[in-house]
Amino acid sequence: MSLTPSDAIESLRQQIREHDYHYYVEDDPRIPDQDYDALMLQLKKLEQEHPELLTTDSPTQRVGGVPLSSFSTVQHVAPMLSLDNAFSEQDMQDFVRRIRERLKLPATSAVEFAAEPKLDGIAVSLLYEKGSLIRAATRGDGEFGEDITANVRTITAVPLRLLGGSVPLRLEVRGEVVMSKATFEAFNRRAVTKNEKPFVNPRNAAAGSLRQLDSRVTAKRSLDCYCYALGLLEGGEWPEDQMALLERLRQWGFKVNPEIKLVSGIDGCSAYYSQMMARRDQLKYEIDGLVFKVNRRDWQSELGYVSRAPRWAIAHKFPAQEAMTTVESVEFQVGRTGAITPVAKLKPVFVGGVTVSNATLHNMDEIDRLGIQVGDFVFIRRAGDVIPQVVRVVLEKRPDAARPISMPTHCPACGSDVEREEQQAVARCSGGLSCPAQRKEALKHFVSRRAMDIDGLGDKLIDQLVDTNLVQSPADLYMLQLSSLLGLERMGEKSSAKLLKAIDKSKSTTLAKFIYALGIREVGESTAKAVASFFGNLQSIKEAEIERLQEVPDVGTVVAKHIHVFFRQPDNLDVVNRLIEVGVHWTEGQPSRTKDASGSLPLTGQTVVVTGTLESVSRDDAKALLEQLGAKVAGSVSAKTSWVLAGPGAGSKLSKAEALGVEVRDEKYFLSLLESNGLQPTGD
Ligand SMILES: NC(=O)c1ccc[n+]([C@@H]2O[C@H](COP(=O)([O-])OP(=O)(O)OC[C@H]3O[C@@H](n4cnc5c(N)ncnc54)[C@H](O)[C@@H]3O)[C@@H](O)[C@H]2O)c1
Ligand SMILES: [Zn+2]
């Protein structure tokens, strides 16, 4: 059953009136501008097809909304109009062609336009008498607006007194009040922490801030104002074109947008459009398009007005950055470091120039903040190259079948437990080594120099090994054959053989390096060393409870929990066992490095500096061993240094130690120190 044209028109008008109310009166739009504009276009089209149904109270014939009753109403000295829109290059060509026709211009003469950014804010009228600001008002319905003088007076960009010698008797200036993107974001961040409702976009923020009943609130919102038109000029000469008008505004002390340019013909308009599209994201404030105004005032007068807009100007809209759609489901994606991110799967929608079907929800805190559920209608925002965001849920439209979103307890990629620490927004998969989503990162870490130290196994090669399925877990590295390596890009006979040798060599390692190589969250090199020397063998680490793990120097609750959870995942244990099966080994010691009764280690409280070349051990390993014994290893010698471990070739550090009278010890002393504490020099 299809509607009669008259019913269809009435239904559209009714919808538009409701949206006007939410938008203009409540500053709380229920649909994105793009959808609103579409309704408007539909209505215009129907009214054109059925002129007999056009009435003067149709939204197509009116400007803006009704003034809010909480402010006193003022009548504008000259109506404040709207602008016609162009949504495409074709619309722009039509606009220029119509002007040419009306002015009966020859095809060769180009029309000049003042090309201005269309600031996405609130239009205001500023009335001056004898140079003083006496009244400021919103556009309202174009004829009547709201008196917001007290609030506008708080905006520093609005002069309270005109500058310059030639001050007219009466002057009405029009401009746009905007809130910068930075102010808007800061405001919303604060609103969220205070559990207040954030604004949808900077335009709404500007509208809401301007229409405060207490102007002290407005004053805090750091609003800005750019002026671009005159409504009245008594006792002065009206400038002869738009560019001259803007210059005059500047002289009177108004802020005029610095991006404004004079352009010529449709080509000039198109070039300006491309330039501004490219600059859009860099601007401090939001613009939703450009306004092209016939520059010459005599031509403006000749072209005149239609119902609600001048014929001599047009707003060329940019692609909308906001759109409304529905959340069809929520998927949990596992990042390469195990972070689990909820992603909203959307009904595809065109926004910011592309079709969007996913939007990140970041984490559970964001989900709580938005109050979002599966099935909800949401506003999506895509500005520039930023990934699409859900900015708001339209609660009024929530369907009965909407379902809350909860974090899965198991990783969607590998089934391991999901960990989420208290006070932390991010949830993570605990399947570090075995999780396919984390495979490449885990392998890159596993082979790195301070871990298993496999020479010649770079990131690109790992990508290839994983992508070709030759390697899924670290143990697979030790199963690689010459023949399979030869099939890879840039792997010849020689490099493949060399790699296999490096892999084989890495089998001989230390417990500390092995623990570090596993890539347990927050277990860095020094923690791995501390854990290895505390427990002495892998079995004890695997079995250790959280309390026991916390006894390791520098291991707190969080790290202890990570280690504990890691060794409770069957898949991780599998990988560890397989590594040992394929021949990864180290010398296990006694759990001898526990703290003594007083809680200190042999070198606790001592600061040691290592310099020169040591024979039996690399400098890094020497530092690590000293740390295991409780020493603090420093990079430079000072009076606080307890002693210096110096090998041959020591330079300035040695001379400094001698100058300061700091004791210098050699490698032999160091080795005996290790021996008496049951440690062995490691390294190659
Ligand atoms: N989402 C909703 O529910 C809803 C409801 C009503 C209106 N709207 C939106 O409001 C807009 C319609 O309002 P409108 O009639 O103000 O039209 P408009 O915003 O498209 O254009 C006119 C306005 O542009 C502004 N402007 C900015 N820079 C300018 C410049 N350099 N020169 C001249 N003017 C400049 C002025 O404030 C002027 O009043 C549309 O974008 C529409 O989508 C949305
Ligand atoms: Zn996983």
Automatic annotation (TrEMBL):
Cofactor(s) required for function per UniProt: Mg(2+); Mn(2+)
Residues that hold Zn(2+) according to the record: 411, 414, 435
Catalytic activities: NAD(+) + (deoxyribonucleotide)n-3'-hydroxyl + 5'-phospho-(deoxyribonucleotide)m = (deoxyribonucleotide)n+m + AMP + beta-nicotinamide D-nucleotide
Catalytic EC class: ligase
Annotated CDD domains: BRCT_DNA_ligase_like, LIGANc
Active-site feature positions: 118
UniProt binding sites for NAD(+): 33-37, 82-83, 116, 139, 176, 293, 317
Keyword vocabulary terms for this entry: DNA damage, DNA repair, DNA replication, Ligase, Magnesium, Manganese, Metal-binding, NAD, Zinc
E.C. designation(s): 6.5.1.2
Keyword DNA damage: yes
Cross-referenced InterPro entries: BRCT_dom, BRCT_dom_sf, DisA/LigA_HHH, DNA_ligase, DNA_ligase_AS, DNA_ligase_CS, DNAligase_adenylation, DNAligase_N
Residues annotated as domain BRCT: 598-684
Gene Ontology MF terms: DNA ligase (NAD+) activity
Entry's family note: Belongs to the NAD-dependent DNA ligase family. LigA subfamily.
HAMAP family assigned to the protein according to its UniProt record, in alphabetical order: DNA_ligase_A
Function of the protein: DNA ligase that catalyzes the formation of phosphodiester linkages between 5'-phosphoryl and 3'-hydroxyl groups in double-stranded DNA using NAD as a coenzyme and as the energy source for the reaction. It is essential for DNA replication and repair of damaged DNA.
Name listed for the protein in its UniProt record: DNA ligase
